[in-house]
Amino acid sequence: GAVVSQHPSRVICKSGTSVKIECRSLDFQATTMFWYRQFPKKSLMLMATSNEGSKATYEQGVEKDKFLINHASLTLSTLTVTSAHPEDSSFYICSGSAGPGETQYFGPGTRLLVL
Amino acid sequence: KQEVTQIPAALSVPEGENLVLNCSFTDSAIYNLQWFRQDPGKGLTSLLLIQSSQREQTSGRLNASLDKSSGRSTLYIAASQPGDSATYLCAFTDKLIFGTGTRLQVFP
Lengths: 115, 108
Description:
The complex is a heterodimer. Chain A is mainly β. Helices cover 0% and strands 53% of the residues of chain A. Chain A has strands at 4-7, 10-13, 19-25, 32-38, 44-51, 57-58, 67-73, 76-81, 90-97, 104-106, 110-114. Chain A is globular. Chain A starts with a strand and ends with a strand. By secondary structure, chain B is mainly beta. Helix content of chain B is 0%, strand content 57%. In chain B, the strands form two sheets. In chain B, strands 2, 4, 5, 9, 10 and 11 form a six-stranded mixed sheet that branches. Chains A and B meet through strand 4, strand 5 and strand 9 of A and strand 4 and strand 5 of B.
């Protein structure tokens, strides 16, 4: 199957700083990328959907000014957690899809710890 | 290595039927299992989460059960509606292992 990578795999930052997470589709063009967050009970919740060249669509309850998403190319989407706080500590996972109805391929995730 | 199979792969039913979607797994030492629905071009929508210590969860017309001894989880959809048409995925989200999916179509 297709491969999606995330960088970094793990990041620790101080409260108040911003952190950028990259999601790359390595061997396919991801017209749509999705960002998920994994919560303590291990449930996976969709945060936002981004289409290349367009503004991201955020799920209800997700602050768009807090979680900035950019999908500037068909192989790269970034999630920036701005002014991070300890409650933002979580596991963030992206996925990419080549188009509507196509399979989503998931990245390995990024563990964020905000001190 | 955990293998997750969903049966049937596709299902087409008339509105009003009660449905059972199956998810089978090979490793009984599971942690948490989550059921999702996926609409074309959309991200996964969480339906139900069953923690490893639980046996079932219910939300509206949906009921999911988990039987670790038999390596199976089932998603029961009562009184199906055309709006239920989607692909349904089971997943072990702590390992990011997803099932093969069941494509459901409910026609009026």
